[in-house]
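Researcher: Here's a chain I'd like modeled. Treat it as a single chain, no partners, no ligands.
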Amino acid sequence: MPPENEYTETTAVILDENSQLTLRELCIACALSAEQIMALMEEGVIEPHGSTDPLRFSGICVQRVRRVVRLERDLGVNHAGAALALELLEEIEQLRARIRRLERR
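Model: Modeled as a single isolated chain. Structure tokens:
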């Protein structure tokens, strides 16, 4: 336990679809190597903005990558299986949101 006069400073950053991250920043945010991120790109889990160098990713990519990592860890599926599960989970979320909107009418 740290002494009473010591404290830890925490900084939070809110990421959304308008946020821009480099490959390095995405690697740091997700605690993955560039090779692992590139493998997820090949599976279609994430896509960079345009074809610029350096690669740029939206803040939503952090959420998608972290979710895929959890799916792989918890379910023991490979990248392709996790990508499919992610796609289905997002579709379920969209359908539930649509149902909620329709029920409010």
